[in-house]
Amino acid sequence: MNAYLADPLAFPQTHPDGFPKLEGEPVFDAAKHLQIEFPETIISLREFGYPDEDIAQCPCDFGITNVFRILSDEGAACMLEVARLLEPYVKSNARIARNVRGGAYQSKFLRDLCQSEELTAAISKICGTDLLPHTIPHQLGHLNYNPKEVGENVDKWHFDTLRIDFVMFVTDPYSVEGGEFEYYLGTKDEVAQLKKDGKPLDPSKIKAPTLLGPGYAVLQQGNMVVHRAKGLTKAGERITMVNGYVPRDVSFPDYTRFDQLYLVDPKHMAASEYSRHVSWMGRELLETQLKGFEFSEDTAKMAENFEQVAEMMATAAEALRKAGEAKVEHFGDD
Ligand SMILES: [Fe+2]
Question: Which spans in 143-255 are helix H?
């Protein structure tokens, strides 16, 4: 564990083309719009079956929480208004039929909510580690909208391209039929093996947290928990918002899946946002060494520090050179 906590990275000042700012949206007010209640149950990665060596690579050892409240009734109403204003900008990819990413560039409400210090402090407390709103703007305030076709899943079985995120219902889950959020109480390797062998997921391990209402969420270590969002069984409106976080302790390996982001986000933005994120990680890793300066003859440790930065940069450079070679990864619908 590293004592140095990274400084935040401000939201980009340059506004991208193709992301028009919303007009006439509500103004986010943390005092009025947040009503955070802490989850009662936290399921650890150990309970998912992860071995200690996998957990050691993660910034914390929790897997997923039960459903807990984030927004007040007024906050949830404003969030729904903003989500509907963003709906004309939906896009489709190989995993999700209708989603809006990059909404934080278009909506100040969404940006302010996703970057709220009060919210970040609460999410950090639940995780048991200090976090920052994700340094890649497209990983903030991702919105999923139900497909037009009844029965088609909102999102297939998958794990996330980031470490920690919450999935919050924007619409009232009780206003529709179906549309459950489900996760698999097993490891991602187990799911990959089952899929490889053409076997179904163990139904006893498929869990659907009890949903409580709009503005309520589950928090998960999204790159470790295999999950999906089921389709509606009758026509209706189902919207969820996913907000991502990065650990402030940058000594943990970066988990960003640039290969995947490049396939779903505008290419120039995915590349630039990733590059900016890696520069921030590198800056903060070097800052760790400068701020922790002391006289030492531990040359092995000094070399290790440089190797860590160099390796991260080399990995990023390789990912950038291979941009576009991957396929969107998921585990399918069943
Ligand atoms: Fe996800």
Answer: 188-196
Structure confidence by residue, pLDDT tens digits, 272-282: 999 999 999 99
Tokens encoding 183: 């996760």
Ligand 1 centroid to 13 CA: how many Å?
Answer: 28
For the chain, the maximum distance between any two Cα atoms, rounded to a whole number of angstroms, is 68
- State the distance from the centre of ligand 1 to the C-alpha of 55, rounded, in angstroms: 19
Share the mean pLDDT of the chain: 95
Ligand 1 centroid vs 97 CA: distance in angstroms? 14
* 51 has pLDDT over 90: yes
Please state the φ and ψ torsions of residue 294, each to the nearest 5 degrees: -155, 160
Task: Give residue 298 CA to ligand 1 midpoint distance, Å.
Answer: 42
What CATH code is assigned to 30-249?
2.60.120.620
pTM value > 0.85: yes
Q: 222: CA distance to ligand 1 center in Å?
A: 6
- Decide: 313 and 133 in contact? Cβ < 8 Å: no
Q: How close is the Cα of 111 to the center of ligand 1, in Å?
A: 19
Integer Cα distance of 34 and 32 in angstroms: 6
How many whole angstroms separate alpha carbon 258 and alpha carbon 245? 16
Neighbours of ion ligand 1 (CB under 5 A): 160
Q: What gap in Å lies between CA 269 and CA 222, rounded to an integer?
A: 22
Burial of 288 (0-12, 13-18, 19+ CB in 10 A): buried
How far is the centre of ligand 1, averaged over its atoms, from the C-alpha of 75 (Å)?
23
User: Which pLDDT tens digit goes with each residue over 133-188?
Assistant: 999 999 999 999 999 999 999 899 999 999 999 999 999 999 999 999 999 999 99
Q: How far is the CA of 144 from the centre of ligand 1 (A)?
A: 10
Contact (Cβ atoms closer than 8 angstroms) between residue 187 and residue 237? no
Q: At what angle do helices 299-321 and 267-291 cross, to 10 degrees?
A: 170
Do 182 and 205 meet the contact criterion of CB atoms below 8 Å apart?
no
Q: How far is the CA of 154 from the centre of ligand 1 (A)?
A: 11
